Amino acid sequence: MNIALELNLVVRRLRRSHGFSLVCIAMLTLGIALSVGMFSVVRGVLLGALPYPDGDLVVVVRAANPQQNMAPGALTPAEAMRLRADDRLFERFGFYSWGGLTVFDAERPREFTITIVSDGFFPTLATPPALGRWFDAADFEDASDAIVLSHGEWQRLFGGDPSAIGRAIETSDGTMRVVGVMPADFGSPLGEIGAFRPWRLSRLTADKPWFPHARFVEAIARRNPARGDAALAHGFDAALAEVRADFALPDDGWRLQITPMLDAIVGTTRPLLWSAFGLAVLVLLIACANVAVLVDARQVAGRHEQAVAQAIGASRARIYRGLLLEIAVLAVVAAALGCLLATLGVDALRELARDSLPRVDRIAVDGAVLAVAGLLALLLPFATALAGTLRVRAAPAQAIRSGGKGLLDGTQRVPRVLPTLSAALSTISLVAAVALLSSLWHLQRVDPGFHPAGIHGMLLYRGGEPEQRPAFTAAVLEQLRAIPGVDAVALSTDVPFAPHGRFQTDLQVRDRERPEPLQALLRRVSPDYLRLLQIPLRAGRGIDDGDRAGSEPVVVINQTLARQVFGEQSPLGQQIGLPLGQGERIYHRVVGVMADQRNTGLRTPPQAELLTPYLQQTYHGMTFLVRSAIADGIDAQMVDALWRVDPRQSVSELYGMQQAVDDELRATRFFVRTVGAFAVAALLLAAFGIYAVASLQQRQRITEFGLRLAIGARPWTLARQIIGGVLRTAALGIALGLLGGWAALRLLQPHLFGIDGGELAVVAVGVGAMLLAALLAGWLPARRASRTDPMQALRGD
Q1: What does pTM read for this prediction?
Q2: Most CB within 10 Å of its CB: which of 163, 348, 349, 433?
Q3: What is the pLDDT of residues 641-673, one digit of tens each?
Q4: How many CB atoms are closer than 10 A to CB 136?
Q5: How far apart are CA 31 and CA 431, in angstroms?
Q6: Do residues 176 and 105 make contact, with C-beta atoms less than 8 angstroms apart?
Q7: What secondary structure letter does DSSP report for 188?
Q8: Spatial separation of the C-alpha atoms in residues 618 and 69, rounded to whole Å
Q9: For residue range 564-583, what is the model confidence (pLDDT) as tens digits?
Q10: Comparing C-alpha atoms, which of 119, 178, 181 is closest to residue 151?
């Protein structure tokens, strides 16, 4: 028969069985849409190449200290300069830091983020500028006015004019000269950057105490493919040993660590995203299993028609070809609808993932995603449905006499296997979803150690001479106090949960031979900082108005630092040396002990921290904080207060501290929503599969049930048999799913919070949800079985 004619007959049969067709298409469409949508996220975030030539060779170089249980972080200037001088370790090595720059190109000043880079930064990333040049050697030796603009900043400042090279821009650091423009697709390791400036390397000299101690230098490198990991690790150890020898430092456990840049960017989201994609595929598998059950049920119902067709000469191959064409048509229609649904929803998915995942702008349904969709749509449904289709092999005469029992014959195992598989897959997804939901619940109840509600921040960078900063900050604080509804104001160089301004350093107690084996967070604050954040003092006092330039250097430490450094001894009055000066360490007297805070995130325990008075040593980066019960318009009033002091000062960022805390939950919320949606879909589909099999078995046993009722059986015994079969199917699936559920918990363990020792409760909730769904799915067939009319059943037989 002509294939077109045969296809036309298949479409006509599916149109006549529109209920069967719509249900199959709906289930497959759901599974394909979820799988395609999640794969677009995986491809965009995890599989897309970095925007650099041979980007897989670009690595991030960090320092880690497993002995002190400290996560990888920044290098010291001494370590960075040592790696820069050794050309045997990497093909290229560069380091950088960040800052802000105010530009006066409009009626009001505007600030953008800049990266201050070493001479190896651009060669490491190996992306040539779209216009002009990189920095040359002279730019790194002396004070340079050279600046390289990002593509976006070039568009804003010059409207994309190619003649921008060599032109001047007025900034808070004086007149800058544009020497280059980077391409539009150039991605800085720090994210969105407005411009790049050269690092004045002559300032990184060994005579400054912070040079071998303070960790604030970020580094990148380009690996030499010929240099193996073992040789690289040996070179790292030798480089750090030389740094320690140069400065007579003890081996306190710090080691260099390299991470592929893509891994550093995506961080801990990689296993979570792959897990979420795996759960989406589980939904598709459950849908395929349900389609297999429905296909078999349809064959049972059409068994006489098939037998008659064989009796009048139709070959078995032709009948099977027609069945395969039916499945293929359903799969193609579902694939088209699933891809359309995923394409329409990708924008919403991208926005849902924004601020929760890196590289979200790369999430799209492209050719590769559609190719995967085709495989999922055609191979998986086709193969799964085929397993339920080709088992009906009765002879025509037998089929005409008995009507056949298909896969639902008691001698066959497939009807139990398919819903059992669905229950197992659904249990896995439920356990994962409940675990993530439990983590979110616990995270929301973590006490950060301060009260963020009602606190608003204004981050800015102040150029000019350091001697002018005290008068400027005092004037701005006074203007902020005058805003109606403001209860308290303060200043800090770093605030909790903010990635900018964070500074870590070591410390040395007077009369001790060596620095303490730890890195402490250091921030410079104004007197009202603790009161504004409502951080309680445990001993002594906080920073007060008398702590200013010329007075005795003082420091407030937190409980963690007091315990790690002084143990049971009182820290009050102790002298702590910090590498903040140009010569020897500056010793600060401990005047207070404050309560711990979780400044680096809700998941991380409190770490050693200390506060010094801002007026004793100012810093160009500063955040002004206000506490106010009035939220509307407070940001604009803060900016107006700043401009009353200096109308040429720009603002880098305005934010609410409560929002910063809430942002800590964004990634967890994203995965709770996505995995939760997959789990609900899997549960509904698994319940449908159990219902379908139970319903078909109930209908096939109508004669038996009618006869048993006629001879005195009680209706509830028939219902109990149906429910018992459902529970046996569900229990076997749950038992198999528990193994996968435990594996899922182990995979998710690094990303779970607050459920240590509570895995059994998580599993119990998932199992309970699956059992409840199975009972609800079997209730209607059981009810119909108990209400079977004996006379009608026997007459129908």
Answers
A1: 0.79
A2: 433
A3: 999 999 888 888 888 888 888 888 888 888 888
A4: 13
A5: 19
A6: no
A7: B
A8: 31
A9: 999 999 999 999 999 887 66
A10: 181
